[in-house]
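## tool: complex_structure
## caller: assistant
## args:
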Amino acid sequence: MLYKILEVYARPDFPEKLRQHVLLSLVALLVAIAIAMPVALMIRNSRLGALIAINIGNIGRAVPSLAILALALPFFGIGFGSALVALTALAIPPILINASTGLREVDKGVIDAARGMGLSGGQILARIQLPIAAPVIFAGIRTSAVQTVASATLATFIGGGGLGDLIVEGYSRRGPEILLAGALAVAILAIITEIGFGVLERAFTPKGLKIAQKRRK
Amino acid sequence: MIEFRQVSKTYPGSDKPVVEDLSFEVLEGEICVLVGPSGCGKTTSMRMVNRLIEITEGEILIDGEPNTAMSGTQLRRKIGYAIQQIGLFPHRTIADNIGTVPNLLGWDRGRIKSRVDELLDTVGLSPDEYRNRYPAELSGGQQQRVGVARALAADPPIMLMDEPFGAVDPITREGLQDEFLRIQQDIKKTIVFVTHDIDEAIKMGDKIAILKQGGVLAQYDTPENILSEPDSEFVSSFVGGDRVLKRLSLTRVGEMDLEPANGGTDGLLRIDEGLTVKDALSELIGSGHSRAVVEKDGENGLLTFEAIEDLMGGASGEPSNGGESSA
Ligand SMILES: Nc1ncnc2c1ncn2[C@@H]1O[C@H](COP(=O)(O)OP(=O)(O)O)[C@@H](O)[C@H]1O
Ligand SMILES: [Mg+2]
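## result:
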């Protein structure tokens, strides 16, 4: 069985499917970051804005991935582009929610001290709020990335390609090794994503915050 | 010098002012304490000085210039700011925290570093041990010290302090107060100091502004005068029924004119010259004696109840006045 699975990975069309899958996930994630972060920054000082963003985010999370893909179909047709739009929509909520709460959770006393010493709004954002919120923001991006890699498997249903193609193929042709090969590849990709972003998250957590986290435990 | 001129503040969406027609002056090198019950507008008044809150009516002059003459951020870089929450930046080292304003002002690195070390020394933290630590590695009292050092960093002539020692236990607080008063003797900053604690106000203030609900100035005077001549029911009840004893805490026994103790002082209670008269009186009563010896400049003085009465002088020597009846 293992040998049969490895044979699937040696197929000439496998690298292309893997490439599609990674590209789809990566582009969706980057676009989602490019949309969610400016919104989170814009609403960082507005309680109402944060409330709206978090609620929209939560609703977005509650809608099943497949439903969002199906929704994209009538508007964007079949293909890679359509899958990209749907995956982007899926990737936004965790980033938006974490970035917005992370920025708002920065201690009020810290912000007040910064203002009182004459830091401008931009300086407070760049030097105080963003570094302190960085771990929370990165955790959101990690969640979103792993979820996007997993959901990209569904892109096949609207002709978006990716590793999902293998699963569908294995299912319809009764080739369990093809199906397994596809599922396994997605799982490994997701784990690599999780670990990779975990490393990033730690790298972007300022040392003083790590010490504070340890003390709190 | 800071001058409040008929300053009022009404927050948006409210029709009642929280500070009303406030006028007083804080003289060069003096600590002016704003004190009063919670919600009476102390913090609001203080924050209007560096324009963290904008004034609704009136003006605040700093050295004769309206504080609106420059931008808010520029103004704030020239005024030290220390608050109860301390607000140390958790992701920055102690040195970086203290260097915040010098850094904003564009000082070079060498100058910032030597200033940081100097200030750590001033507030009693060894620079070698603390400069590279992070706030989470410090006790509450140490964090408050760093907060004060950070406010002093660019040597601003004016400081705003909002319950700066409020977040620590009473014993640590007393130590920090004593230390700050000692520092202030050298640096002579013009300070607006906010507290809700009348004892802290009496201890720290050269002047005290007592505010009552609605941000109305009830009395503005030296601690001595406020304790000896509270000019309203509100003030006398706010300073408390023990205001005579509080006055005793304003003086140390070493500062009193004491009769020399002639003859034998053996067996008599000895009292340290650094004690406040209030604490000395407490010891005297507790010991069951009616006299004690205070050694000052190598000479023995005699502390008696009469000497304490003399200290309190005329007005308050009379037994029944407004303060007692309201307590
Ligand atoms: N940003 C604000 N918006 C509206 N009301 C405020 C605001 N800040 C303070 N207040 C109100 O103004 C009054 C005075 O507050 P404050 O100056 O903080 O008092 P204190 O420092 O003496 O406790 C309080 O009634 C408080 O609720
Ligand atoms: Mg207050």
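## assistant note: The radius of gyration of chain B is 22 Å. Residues 170-187 of chain B form the longest helix (18 residues). Handing back to user.
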